[in-house]
Design brief:
The complex is a heterodimer of chains A (487) and B (214). Chain A contains 17 helices and 20 strands. Chain A has 487 residues and is α/β, with parallel strands linked by helices. The chains are: A alpha/beta (487), B alpha/beta (214).
């Protein structure tokens, strides 16, 4: 039996969805994009151009939900299948787009540069329980107009895993799409084997900016999967109650689904989000709050009810360093996400309200993800019945260390985490230098950087990516890209 | 793959039947017993120790390899001149008087046997006199003691003192372990060794007896 957790009764869930649809069909959403307004109005929505507002119809919403794929797959840069988002399948991906990196030596944050990004790509390449990379850091040593595309470029060069990413501007979509075409070879190949997921964020309450709504439409045209990241803030830009926040999240997400499916029916999507409660004491949006996690798990139930694969920003922390809070919040989040069957779990590595990535935390979180996978395997009998023979063996041999049963099931039944999780007794721990978690994690980061094997993406494609990136940089007056972006 | 490499390989897999079969075959092919031992069995055990240290394999793998090693060694013994036979020695072990916790001690026993030592397990609640008597009677070179309670730890001190008092210091070496026991305590009471777990206990015993390999 797969263990699971549930927060919403069927009755409550259906009420939330009904209220959200009612909202969309009465007040609608603010949509600051004339092309999108026209598209929706052409399909029967009531668009008020002067107010940048669009009111949906029940039919529009139902049609979109019918054409939205119930599952989809992702493929790495070599074309191998890595993800099948469906049912209760769980995949982890690093928290995306951090402004800062936590520097191990100084224990301070700083803006990441190209070398940090490459080190990140080298580490994530080798983390077994984190299935995709995300464009997790925003490099500060390139022109800001290319800081989004440059991340994807480095990711595609240095790591084979598919990429969770997104653009910061409308213009960047073109180059970020072209990188993917370079890797896949054709639009058709990219459509057949998606390589990335683009995060597209509505603005709370019930708004879409020109950039993000354009991204939704652009992705749909090329069959690039999107994840909708609605971010209602309970008690500030959304009702303080979790139910009220869920109604708003549902409405904001449904509006994105309609826009995407109208642009091109069948576009793959994740029913995602990054909602949070608002901590009025500090005026912050804690991702590690238990209520934030409850909202995540609950909207995941709504997404599944609507027949869509899901995503959430969960299994991350608001701590400033790799301390106990970082572990507690990430651990609780990862376990809840796994039990809820959130299909794409965005979070590992992330600290400080989604603003800071830590390579050391990524290594630790990889183990948390591994533990979560073990948890999902549940408790199953494995040659345990009838019990008598094994117990006869135990009583006769006095132990089962080399029993056939032990040898057969040891590695299947017990998850052995890496060195970052300390399981030595105190004397041995002391003998090995009495290292604290942060140091053990850092040692492992250094080792992974040493053991990294270059991406097997063919050289001519790497060359093409470099050419594309150089041309894009030149558009913004940057003649030379930072050193180090070679493997 | 040559015969000796195959022996090492099957030993690493813990396949005692294959090891015995190949050792017999090697003997029949006139490969010297010493070469079979040193370039086959011991090479395999070396690989196993290294992998165990690096956490690539687990305790059961080591024990199985040891079992295969000893199965092979049995076939070689009649052919080896006496000095070539790896003789590891005898260890008397027990949980000290007043203490009934023997899980750790049992694990040490299993590991020592796996490594090729002869183990005389006196059980739990063992009085100081008993340790020494058994060691003398069995001509053991090591007394291993375990305690889980701070209240029973002083019994270890008594055993160490008794060994000294009876003039066996240096001839019978003492090694201690258990949750409350520390390296410092071992030094304080004059024990010859301390180990924080069973795998380390084996290493420590080998060190005390000057056994390098096997």
């Amino acid at each position: 039996m797969r263990p699971s957790v549930k927060f919403l009764s069927d009755e409550l869930l259906q009420k939330i969805v009904a209220e959200a649809k009612e909202l969309l069909c009465t007040v609608g959403v603010e949509l600051n994009n004339l092309k999108a307004l026209k598209l929706l109005s052409d399909h029967g929505a009531k668009a008020e151009k002067e107010k940048s507002r669009v009111i949906f119809t029940p039919d529009l919403i139902e049609t979109a939900l019918r054409t939205a794929p119930r599952s989809f797959k992702l493929f790495d840069v070599l074309g191998n299948e890595t993800h099948h988002f469906e049912g209760m399948a769980v995949y982890f991906t690093p928290g995306s787009a951090a402004l800062y990196i936590l520097d191990h030596q100084s224990k301070e944050i700083r803006h990441p540069v190209t070398d940090d990004y490459i080190n990140y790509a080298k580490v994530i390449s080798q983390l077994k329980y984190i299935a995709s990379q995300s464009t997790a850091l925003i490099p500060a040593d390139v022109h800001e107009k290319i800081s989004d595309s440059y991340r994807l470029y480095l990711s595609l060069l240095f790591c084979e895993k598919p990429v969770v990413t997104g653009t910061f501007t409308i213009e960047s979509f073109e180059i970020m799409k072209n990188f993917q075409l370079a890797v896949r070879g054709s639009e058709e190949a990219l459509r057949t084997k998606p390589l990335t997921i683009f995060s597209c964020c509505p603005t709370s309450p019930l708004k879409w900016s020109e950039v993000t709504s354009q991204n939704v439409m652009d992705c749909a045209r090329y069959g690039i999967p999107v994840e909708f990241i609605a971010m209602p803030l309970s008690g500030f830009l959304a009702p303080v109650t979790l139910v009220g926040t869920l109604i708003q999240h549902t409405a904001e997400t449904l509006s994105g689904i309609v826009l995407s499916q109208i642009t091109r029916p069948g576009t793959p999507m994740l029913y995602g989000g990054s909602p949070a409660i608002f901590d009025i004491r500090y005026e912050t949006t804690p991702m590690g709050a238990i209520e934030t996690m409850m909202i995540d798990c609950a909207y995941n139930e709504i997404g599944k009810y609507l027949g869509l694969p899901t995503q959430a920003y969960i299994s991350l922390s608001d701590a400033k360093r790799l301390d106990a809070q970082a572990g507690v919040e990430t651990g609780i989040g990862a376990v809840l996400a796994a039990l809820s069957g959130i299909n794409n779990v965005s979070g590992p590595g992330m600290l400080d309200f989604e603003s800071c990535q830590s390579l050391e935390k990524l290594v630790l979180d990889n183990e948390v993800c591994g533990m979560s996978y073990r948890l999902l395997q549940g408790i199953e009998p494995k040659d345990d019945f009838p019990a008598l023979p094994l117990f006869q063996e135990l009583l006769q041999e006095q132990h089962l260390l080399i029993s056939r049963h032990t040898r057969r099931y040891l590695k299947e039944e017990i998850f052995f985490p890496g060195e970052v999780i300390d399981r030595a007794n105190r004397a041995r721990w002391k003998e090995q230098g009495a290292l604290e978690l942060e140091q053990r994690a850092h040692d492992q980061v250094q080792q992974l950087i040493r053991t990294y094997q270059p991406s097997r993406l063919p050289d001519e494609i790497k060359k093409e990516l470099r050419k594309l990136m150089k041309t894009e940089a030149r558009r913004y007056g940057q003649e030379k890209l930072p050193e180090g972006n070679r493997d | 793959m040559n015969m000796l490499m195959k022996i090492s390989d099957y030993l690493c897999q813990g396949d005692d039947e294959k090891v015995v079969q190949l050792v017999n075959q090697a003997i029949a092919e006139n490969i010297s017993a010493r070469d079979i031992l040193e370039q086959g069995l011991l090479v395999g055990m070396g690989i196993i120790s290294e992998r165990f240290k690096n956490h690539e394999i687990f305790l059961p793998d080591v024990l199985l390899a040891s079992k295969a090693m000893h199965a092979g060694l049995e076939k070689l013994k009649p052919l080896l001149i006496e000095t070539d036979v790896p003789s590891l020695g005898k260890v008397v072990i027990g949980t000290v008087q007043g203490d009934l916790h023997d899980i750790g001690k049992n694990l040490v026993g299993i590991m020592l046997k796996g490594a090729g030592f002869e183990v005389i397990d006196l059980g739990k609640g063992v009085a100081p006199e008993k340790f020494l008597e058994a060691a003398q009677a069995e001509q053991a070179q090591i007394i291993g003691m375990s305690a889980l309670l701070t209240t029973t730890m002083p019994v270890m001190k008594n055993v160490v003192a008794l060994v000294k008092e009876r003039g066996f210091q240096g001839k019978i070496k003492t090694i201690i372990g258990g949750a409350p026991v520390t390296e410092d305590y071992a030094r304080q009471i004059g024990a010859d060794g301390y180990a924080y777990d069973a795998a380390r206990a084996v290493e420590k015993v080998k060190e005390l007896l000057g056994v390098i390999k096997v």
